Each structure stands twice: as C-alpha cells, then as structure tokens.
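User: structure tokens for this one?
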Amino acid sequence: MRTVLVLPLALVLLGAADAVPENAVCIENASDETLFFVAEAGDDERVTRELAPGETLCTASSEQPVQGVVGVFADPDALEGCSRLAISGTVETMRRYVAFDRCLWGSEAPSD
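Assistant:
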C-alpha cells in the first residue's frame, strides 16, 4: 500500500532576485516566449504553469535532495515538448524552445 502525503500548495514562482528554495526542482524561462513549464520532484510532486520570459517555476522545498524532471511545452495541450533530468537545489535554464526534445538548455551554451 502506498501512502500519499498531501502538502500545502507546492507552486513557487520566483523573480530574478529570489533565492531557490532548499532542495526544490526549478526551471527558468530564459527564452523570449511565454511557454508552458513543468517541474517534478521525485514521484510525489508535479507543478505546472505558463511562464513569461525571465520567470522561474519551482517545486516546494524538501528536507532531502531529490532528483526530478523539468519540461517545457508550447501550451498545456501540446503532446511534444522538451524535458531533462534535474537535481534539486539548482535551476535548469531553458534558453530556446524547439519542439520534439530539441530545446537549448543553459548548460549547453554560453550566456549571451
């Protein structure tokens, strides 16, 4: 039997000067488009939101570091998008959206 823990609202939306919540899985929209983003922490938490350029989406902080997945889609109904593994406590930066898992991530290109 699986136990489900219900936590308070897990969506955290950060501005540029805000610190990353401890052990949270985060994704930043560094593109010039408003897109639909997903952040997942382990098997227990998934948050989604449309992000404007410069905004960051995070799961809630957790007591222990977790592995997660972040993703981006053209809109909430899109079937294809981009995703990548993420480690809590860091921010994955999506620099350019291209459908079918061909996005440009911050770790793959130098800053402008």
